[in-house]
TrEMBL record:
<keyword id="KW-0547">Nucleotide-binding</keyword>
<dbReference type="GO" id="GO:0016887">
    <property type="term" value="F:ATP hydrolysis activity"/>
</dbReference>
<feature type="domain" description="ABC transporter">
    <location>
        <begin position="3"/>
        <end position="233"/>
    </location>
</feature>
<dbReference type="Pfam" id="PF00005">
    <property type="entry name" value="ABC_tran"/>
</dbReference>
<dbReference type="Pfam" id="PF08402">
    <property type="entry name" value="TOBE_2"/>
</dbReference>
<dbReference type="InterPro" id="IPR003593">
    <property type="entry name" value="AAA+_ATPase"/>
</dbReference>
<dbReference type="InterPro" id="IPR027417">
    <property type="entry name" value="P-loop_NTPase"/>
</dbReference>
<dbReference type="InterPro" id="IPR017871">
    <property type="entry name" value="ABC_transporter-like_CS"/>
</dbReference>
<dbReference type="InterPro" id="IPR050093">
    <property type="entry name" value="ABC_SmlMolc_Importer"/>
</dbReference>
<keyword id="KW-0813">Transport</keyword>
<dbReference type="GO" id="GO:0022857">
    <property type="term" value="F:transmembrane transporter activity"/>
</dbReference>
<dbReference type="InterPro" id="IPR008995">
    <property type="entry name" value="Mo/tungstate-bd_C_term_dom"/>
</dbReference>
<dbReference type="GO" id="GO:0043190">
    <property type="term" value="C:ATP-binding cassette (ABC) transporter complex"/>
</dbReference>
<keyword id="KW-0067">ATP-binding</keyword>
<protein>
    <submittedName>
        <fullName>ABC transporter ATP-binding protein</fullName>
    </submittedName>
</protein>
<dbReference type="InterPro" id="IPR003439">
    <property type="entry name" value="ABC_transporter-like_ATP-bd"/>
</dbReference>
<dbReference type="GO" id="GO:0015847">
    <property type="term" value="P:putrescine transport"/>
</dbReference>
Length: 345
């Protein structure tokens, strides 16, 4: 294991930013720290970088506690959200800055700088200044400046946040390819769930300074552990009720969910894309309701259906299935048993 956090705690006055947090990051892993504002993800990143010190707990790199090690002495580099390029320096000088500070020989600096710029597709940009670059090009310079130091661990603070949608997707794939090519572990902080799910090998979802769930993207999306995870990732429908003998009865949905539902379950999650609008709504894993609103989203439409028990379900209606029902229409809904996820909390 490359990095291990053990009971990391950090307070800012009365605010508890990290609450005895435990985490492991493997060698060569692309890891995403996901969460809303105030969840603790940026504080954790700054502690790993050495810009913040924990109040208690340990931060182990290769088994050695580095909590008191200064940033410059760690095999860790950080790419800031603002990119933090020196405006008076050329692209090449920005990339080479860390190498010069580290006392690397001049010939090696030139070779490594050229290699890093080639890696991010900026050959021929060596003499330009930051003000002559686009946002995407600045992001690549900042990435090259980090990678040229050959860190074992690269920290990325909202690396795609300043880019437009099309460039963000393309740059995300490039980041993933660079991570594989260099073999370094990447730890990315983001509030964008699509970004985290698309790029990371594993995702840790933070809430209130604690890890709500950690795992492979598909695993935590399809099998959320709690109401919070289900609602944060993909905005799943969460329904309250009571389980007995493999069935879950929900008064607010006026529906019965049948499947492998453990006894004692008091809430289940149901993804919008797993619900079908059908002609027949009889039996378990079905419900009836009235369409409250419809929003076109490109590949599908989001349909809000008020059930007879009072709950509102979000339903993703694919364009290939025809036009969505109109507001006020009565509809029948159905879903497969394996679409129902029992929630532990």
């Amino acid at each position: 294991m490359l990095l291990r956090a053990e009971a990391l705690t950090r307070r800012f006055g009365a605010m508890l930013a990290l609450d005895a947090l435990d985490l492991e990051i493997a060698e060569g892993e692309f890891f995403a720290l996901l969460g809303g504002s105030g969840s603790g993800k940026s504080t954790l990143l700054r502690i790993i970088a050495g810009f913040e010190a924990p109040d208690s707990g340990r931060l182990l790199l290769d088994g050695h506690d580095i909590a008191a090690t200064p940033p410059w002495a760690r095999p860790v580099n950080m790419m800031f959200q603002s990119y933090a390029l020196f405006p008076h320096m050329s692209v090449a000088d920005n990339v080479a800055y860390g190498l010069r500070r580290a006392g690397v020989a001049r010939g090696d600096i030139a070779a490594r700088t050229a290699s890093a710029l080639a890696m991010v597709g900026l050959d021929g940009f060596e003499r330009r200044r930051p003000h002559q670059l686009s946002g995407g090009q600045k992001q690549r310079v900042a990435l090259a400046r980090s990678l040229v130091m050959r860190p074992r661990l690269l920290l990325l603070d909202e690396p795609l946040g300043a880019l437009d949608a099309g460039l963000r997707e393309r740059t995300g794939f490039e980041l993933r390819a660079l991570q594989r090519e260099t073999g370094a572990a990447f730890v990315m902080v983001t509030h964008d769930q699509e970004e985290a799910l698309a790029l990371a090998d594993r995702v840790a979802l933070l809430d209130g300074g604690r890890i709500a769930q950690v795992g492979a993207p598909r695993a935590i999306y399809e099998r959320p552990a709690s109401r919070f995870v289900a609602r944060f990732l993909g905005a799943a429908n969460v329904l309250e009720g009571q389980a007995a003998e493999g069935r879950f009865d929900s008064a607010e949905a006026a529906a019965t969910f049948a499947g492998a539902i453990p006894a004692g379950t008091v809430a289940v999650a149901l993804r919008p894309e797993r619900i079908r609008i059908t002609a027949d709504g009889a039996g378990p894993n079905t419900a009836q309701g009235v369409v409250e609103d419809v929003a076109f989203r490109g590949d599908d439409s989001l349909v809000l259906v008020r059930l007879s028990g009072g709950a509102t379900l979000r339903v993703a209606h694919a364009e290939e299935d025809g036009a969505p029902p109109e507001r006020g229409a009565s509809v029948c809904l159905a879903w497969d048993a394996d679409a129902v996820v029992a929630l532990a909390s």
